[in-house]
Amino acid sequence: MDTRALRNCFGNFATGVTVVTWAAGEQQRSGITVNSFTSVSLDPPLVLVSIDCKARACEALKNKPFVINILASDQEAIAWQFAGRPQIDLEMEWEDTELGPKIKGALATMECEPWQAYEAGDHVLYLGKVKAFTVNGGNALLFYKGKFYDSKEMEKKLIEG
Fold first, then answer.
1. Total domain count for the chain?
2. Residue 151's domain is classified under what CATH number?
3. Which domain holds residue 28?
4. Which residues contact residue 38 at a Cβ distance below 8 angstroms, ignoring those fewer than 6 apart?
């Protein structure tokens, strides 16, 4: 199977953009941009993120509490930063919590304890139990066909036809 063609096929599904963050040591924060995120259960409150086995974050996240930061439309530079493309002028603002660092200005955050991890082909599925969450106002950052979009701009385009 042509994996590039399959990846392009998957790209037809618009997703929100998240950065999963965790404490990597005393005063050290780490993260990875993830668009493979989904809610799993309300009782107990569970969420899932899918991490490529080849990513350094895959091993680093093992058995660690983490925070899912749903990015706002003005946080594209943050998405690139944690996708491995350093943004030279980016000044990160953090809020530390008991379960890990949160990105200030995120559209929403979910602080999670590790629940379970499952090997799934070339990825590991990390399930977290949501212990706390925040929701802020604003527009979401979307990812569609390899590009980032502001959810409000995408909505306008859909209405205009």
1. 1
2. 2.30.110.10
3. 3-160
4. 47, 48
